[in-house]
Design goal:
With 505 residues, this protein is mainly α. It contains 19 helices and two strands. The longest helix has 48 residues. It starts with a helix and ends with a helix.
Length: 505
Amino acid sequence: MQTKNTISSKYSVENGGRSLVLLLLFFVALLSFKSSGFTSFAAVCCAPLVILFGYFFFRIKMSLFYTLFIVNTLLMFAQRHYSIPVPISMINEMMEIMLIAMALIEVANYKITNLLNVMGATLLVWLAFCTLELLNDSCDIGIDVYRWYTGARLMSMQLVYAFIVYTLFVNTPEKLMRVFVLWACFILFASFWVWKQINIGMTDAEKSFLYSSPSHIVAGKIRYFSCFTDAANFGIHTAVASAVFIILAITLKIKRYRYFFLAVGLIGIWAFFQSGTRTSIFCLIAVFLVYIVLSKSVKLMLYFGGLMLVALYILIFTTIGDSNYSIRRMRTAFDTEDASMNVRDMNKATLRKYMAEVPWGVGIGLENSDIPPFNKFRLITQVPPDSEYVYIWVRTGKIGLTVFIITTLILAFGASWIVMFRLKNKTLIGIGAAYTGAFIGMHLGGYANQILMQFPNILIYYGGLAIVYCLPKMEGAWAEWEAKQLARQEERRRLKLEKKRASRV
């Protein structure tokens, strides 16, 4: 009887040449990917990896979720530096659909009933409206299902996917904390990358993007964008995230998380100033204001309220820090005569004249190149929207914008109600308030900039709001997990004290 080593040796002798060729092809595929992007050759040679990862994901379900989170945060960064042959949103969407399929296959292991809440119903209303928009032919160019689907999955379907995935897979305290840690690591990477752009320099791809985007150079100063789509997205996302992590540092009882999140929050505040995005400071304040109100703590209201008043007073009524360009740039957010803001108002006034004729909008997925030159509505798509809300208004009209605003208000009010009246655990109240504030802060940013539907915001912020709706059902498990963590923390402290005392003897 042959031993395993003998069989392995025999296989190597008989198939060594083939194995070597396959290995060489794999390395050639990697080299091709690095030099030319994701070509067809690289895709074929890497196919075995896809099968391997697929098997791994089905064996360990949460690994796909964490992969989705990481890919979602770094998609735009990857696209800037590499050629990706498929729409990047499709990569995200495929993994979300895979997760949903896994949950349906093993439905007994997932709490599907958690999807039956106000947020799920509200998002379905918005999805239904966007589906109805398929019949919109305001520009008289015919109905294009593919074009509609391309726009609708970005405007509504990815919201539903984020809600379902977070609700089903982030269902324990341990998983929730891992998501926070992953998000924190991403903010640290983004902060490091902007530091690298400032002190070491940009890559060739980043320089190309910078020189083709005039809005990223103001008064000879660069508005840094780190690993995000643009400076506005980077500034607003990082400002909101920083506020969330500072709130977590205040409310969590486990020291190692508190110190880590506080450091991330402070580093993030430094980073978002480098973006020169003035709206981000209002988004940061909005998150803290929501937290103050929902926490129902008079002490916090007085403390944070006083701190924010002092900060606003310094920005509005003094010249402290004017030697720093980032602070000067943020200070212009309070200038009502700012030229860029006046341009935005003029753009909206121009759009308003044409939008009166299309109450349902020009159609979801419709871009400038899709409308014939002689069509009067072509001008609407040529005017820079400068805001996610204006973009939605142009595509779905005043009817669609009204539906979107109402559904957003319902989502925010429902989450606020849960935090204020249904949660009893103070730590969970802090987490719920932070996520609710983040959702509101991002929509404030979306009102001023076209960033709301950009990567990685939907998965993180709509998914985060989905967690708030599930927190009441997690409260018992959280109390148990928190008690165990605090007991371990106390045990480590006791052992440390004993060791210290022993060293003195």
